[in-house]
Amino acid sequence: MKQGDVKHEAISLIEREHRSLAAVIDAMKHVVKKVEGSDKPPDFRLLHAMLYYICEYPEQRHHPSEDSTLFALLMQRSDEADEIIRDLEAEHDEGEEMLGMLTVALSTWEAGRPDGVERFSEALTRFSEFYWQHMQKEESKVLPIAQRQLTEEDWRAVKDAFSAHGDPLLGQEKGDEFNELFSEIVRMTPAPIGLGDLDG
Ligand SMILES: [Fe+2]
Ligand SMILES: [Fe+2]
């Protein structure tokens, strides 16, 4: 495999994970928007499944792979991206805290708090904007520097980390679990975003 192939494969794996996460965040906003301003309860099971996906996927796979390969290797090769990488690493922690708040907001909404939907919707908008900017920074600032600085061996390590579905450390089951959960979310999410009931 040529260097360009390994590099492009690694980059497309990272970008694909970003798209999956963005798709689930967007689907969640869609579900909330459908019930805002109405007395109709949302499909809490679906919202929990989405939140679980958003919480677990970055924590279990995406961020650790960025920290241990892409960011670590780039900092070894050059100091060009040091500052932005430090910001992004801090954002990985910040995102975790925001998800904690989102989880609490979902539980209090489900428990019947009168302004539950507004509070959850606000927390989701904040998280969505935060995460979108985070991914944009990685794609528009870090990846271009990485393309100039990383070696073929580095790109192979990045690609292996992001395509590690069969890695015994993460387990094939872990990859399958997230793929199945993603498919279930798509099935349950109302059209036109997902495949679920239009009135869902
Ligand atoms: Fe990240
Ligand atoms: Fe990322």
Task: List its traits.
Four Helix Bundle (Hemerythrin (Met), subunit A), 200 residues, mainly alpha, binds fe (ii) ion, 79% helix
What is the helix fraction of residues, given as a range? Answer: over 70%
Q: Please count the beta strands (DSSP E, at least 2 residues each).
A: 0
* β-strand amount: under 5%
How many DSSP helices?
Answer: 6
Secondary-structure element string: HHHHHH
Which class in CATH terms? Mainly Alpha
Gyration radius, in Å: 18 Å
Can you tell me about this structure?
The chain is elongated, with a radius of gyration of 18 Å. Helix 1 packs parallel to helix 5, helix 2 packs across helix 6 and helix 3 packs antiparallel against helix 4. It contains six helices and no strands. The chain has 200 residues and is mostly helical. It has one domain: Four Helix Bundle (Hemerythrin (Met), subunit A) (Up-down Bundle). About 4% of the residues have low confidence. Bound molecules: fe (ii) ion (2 copies). The site of one fe (ii) ion has 6 residues, from helix 2, helix 3 and helix 4.
Concise account of the structure shown:
With 200 residues, the protein is mainly α.
Topology:
Blueprint: H1 3-35, H2 44-77, H3 82-110, H4 116-149, H5 152-162, H6 172-188
Helix pairs in contact: 1-2, 1-4, 1-5, 2-3, 2-4, 2-5, 2-6, 3-4
